[in-house]
Design brief:
The complex is a heterodimer of chains A (172) and B (456). Helices cover 50% and strands 13% of the residues of chain A. With 172 residues, chain A is of the alpha+beta class. A 4-stranded antiparallel β-sheet of chain A has the order 2-3-1-4, with helices on one face. In chain A, helix 3 packs antiparallel against helix 4. The radius of gyration of chain A is 26 Å and the shape is rod-shaped. Chain B has 16 helices and no strands. The longest helix of chain B has 34 residues. With 456 residues, chain B is an all-alpha fold. In chain B, helix 8 packs antiparallel against helix 9. Classes of the chains: A alpha+beta (172), B mainly alpha (456). At the A-B interface, strand 2, helix 3 and helix 4 of A face helix 1, helix 5, helix 6, helix 7 and helix 15 of B.
């Protein structure tokens, strides 16, 4: 793994200001770790809009079709039962189960996709750079160019210090 | 920038991020107080009573209950609807208030949602136990079987199975996804190896990466969007259990909205009952402030008034419809042998919440606590009145009768109360009761500090 440098801010506004400066200097920011979602970081890191919403929609559609189709198949083809003289294919009474399955499929598929895309899961190992990143520190992780490590490290350290970051640490 | 002096801060006491973490996580560390032990002992005794009642029901059968051939639904279904209703407040707070961008929800959503999960567990117990033979519980699921039979998809009781199980599953996922960042915080502060290992496992490897946060926000928003109609559907379907029947007193189209608002009404009452004790016991008064209590009280006035109007509408329509049986069912409710239950319901649900129009009462912790208990009682009686008074005088006067619960039925109810408080007390020991990360994210915009630092 490449060497990298971490530094932290004590406030999210300083973080955002600092990130802007670091980006202008052309530093490769690998990650930003924050105790709560900070809006604006996504722009600095050039993150795409999450596609999880599509997963939710598709899975919901599958759930709806499956729920409705299953009930319709059972009551019209597989085993038509006369229940109080009601029609076999009765759309309104299939709606509640269809709706519940839509929600169930959508929610579960989206959450599973969320865990997979983040590589999170029961017992997943977290690479902890600084234990205070989940408390009150806003951590920046900068990549070091290994082909000219010594020189690059000095540049990054200088840039971080200029951008007001504290606790600059080199890690491998 | 000008900030309105009228807007009270959501979080009191000039906190910084570290203090927020310390304050909220401190109840999880150290030994529990003697009140906690007293509470869990009491809840445990209630739970044992429930275990005894469950044993009697399973071993000897439903004959142990006070039901008879006229009144086939008694306390069992009353308790079921009561518990499901209580659950609704948690989802309302975490999903619907999130969609409406109500920032005050951040202090109460975690514990309200935990309350939802526990209440739905208590609710789910009753349909299971009322079958008498728990082993046959799987009959309600549609799976290919040797009997070559499917379930009846035209039955609201089956819809209930789907609604309640989906509701529980989605609420659990929603709650846990929200909990993961805070579990990461707990892991990173843990001092012992075992604690670190357990919370490390539970936190799913959370680091607080900006990429994860971005997706986390998307997931929370969509889950809220899914949970909001879900919660409305659940009590709608519960009301269908009654509304799709042909029993006078049940067969009314007003039931779905009336049940949903009743559910949110009773749920907020239970949230208040729990929160008022929790904030005091865990020293969280700066996070769950009087403003939070007031906001919840306002929702109680709104939903309580909807419930009150529903009662009156129901009564009016029963008379206006000109249907003899319908009119009798309602007249019998108010002036028949169960009139005492009806008037307890009317007093607790229609009159007491109206006291919250007075700001003094809304802002008083003690009065709010008392009224919240009244609402809990009133909403239990509402379900009792709907279930029992509609049944006890049916179409054949020779089978008119009265219903009294047996000790076993009382035991089952007390047992679920025991379960509820046991699990809630365990919850406040092992998980952060307030969403730490969410509180931090509103601290700047809505904390007290904001006035001094933000605008230079």
């Amino acid at each position: 793994m490449n060497r990298y440098i971490t530094a932290y801010y004590l406030d999210e506004e300083n973080l955002l200001k600092g990130l802007g400066q670091l980006k202008a200097k052309g530093l490769k920011i690998r990650d930003v770790l924050t105790p709560f979602p900070v809006h604006g970081v996504d722009k600095v890191l050039n993150m795409r809009r999450s596609r999880l919403t599509r997963v939710a929609f598709l899975a919901g559609a599958v759930g709806a079709l499956l729920g409705f189709g299953f009930q319709a198949w059972i009551f019209t083809i597989d085993y038509p039962l006369n229940i109080g003289g009601k029609p076999f294919f009765s759309v309104p009474s299939f709606m509640p189960v269809t709706f519940e399955l839509t929600v169930l499929f959508s929610a579960f598929a989206m959450v599973i996709a969320f865990f997979m895309s983040n590589q999170l899961g029961p017992g997943a190992k977290a690479l902890i750079h600084d234990e205070r990143a989940t408390d009150d520190r806003f951590l920046v992780v900068v990549e070091v160019d290994d082909s000219r490590a010594e020189e690059n490290i000095r540049e990054i350290e200088l840039a971080l210090a200029e951008a007001g970051a504290e606790g600059i640490t080199i890690k491998a | 920038m000008y900030t309105s002096p009228l807007r009270e801060p959501l979080i009191r006491g000039n906190k910084n991020y570290k203090q927020v973490t310390d304050d909220i996580l401190s109840p999880m560390a150290g030994k529990p107080s003697k009140y906690w032990y007293a509470g869990i002992t009491l809840a445990g005794i209630a739970l044992l009573f429930g275990a005894w009642a469950t044993f009697r029901t399973v071993f000897y059968g439903i004959g142990e209950w006070g039901l008879n051939k006229t009144i086939g639904w008694g306390w069992g279904i009353t308790n079921f609807v009561w518990w499901v209703g209580i659950g609704h407040a948690g989802t309302f707070i975490s999903a619907i208030l999130l969609l409406f961008r109500q920032k005050w929800r951040t202090s109460i959503n975690r514990s309200a949602e935990a309350m939802t999960l526990i209440a739905v567990m208590c609710a789910g117990f009753f349909p299971l136990i009322h079958m008498g033979r728990l082993l046959l519980g799987f009959y309600i699921f549609p799976y290919p079987n040797t009997r070559a039979l499917w379930v009846n998809f035209n039955s609201p009781l089956l819809w209930d199975v789907f609604a309640i199980s989906t509701y529980f599953a989605v609420s659990l996922v929603f709650w846990y996804v929200g909990l993961i960042p805070d579990l990461g915080t707990v892991r990173d502060r843990a001092t012992t190896k075992i604690r670190k290992a357990i919370y490390g496992f539970l936190s799913f490897g959370w680091t607080g990466s900006a990429r994860h946060w971005s997706r986390h926000e998307t997931v929370s928003l969509i889950l809220a969007g899914l949970a909001a109609p879900l919660v409305l559907s659940v009590h709608t379907i519960v009301s269908f259990d009654f509304a799709t029947s042909v029993i006078p007193g049940w067969h009314t189209t007003i039931f779905p909205p009336y049940f949903v608002s009743g559910a949110i009404f009773s749920g907020f009452a239970m949230v208040l009952t729990l929160m008022i004790v929790t904030r005091k016991a865990l020293n969280l008064e700066e996070y769950i402030t009087l403003n939070h209590i007031e906001s919840m009280n306002k929702i109680i006035i709104l939903t309580g008034s909807i419930v009150g109007i529903a009662y009156l509408t129901e009564f009016f329509i029963a008379w206006y419809s000109g249907v003899e049986f319908e009119t009798y069912a309602f007249f019998n409710r108010a002036f028949g042998p169960y009139a005492w239950a009806y008037w307890i319901m009317m007093t607790c649900n229609v009159i007491t919440p109206q006291l919250f129009w007075f700001r003094k009462i809304r802002m008083s912790v003690v009065l709010t606590f008392i009224i919240s208990i009244f609402v809990n009682i009133g909403m239990w009686f509402e379900r009792f009145v709907i279930v029992v008074t509609s049944l006890h005088r049916d179409f054949l006067p020779s089978s008119w009768t009265m219903y009294k619960p047996s000790l076993v039925e009382v035991g089952l109810y007390v047992g679920t109360l025991g379960l509820f408080f046991t699990l809630f007390l365990l919850f406040i020991r092992v998980f952060p009761v307030i969403a730490v990360a969410e509180v931090k994210s509103v601290l700047k915009s809505s904390g007290e500090k904001q006035k001094t630092t933000d605008h230079e």
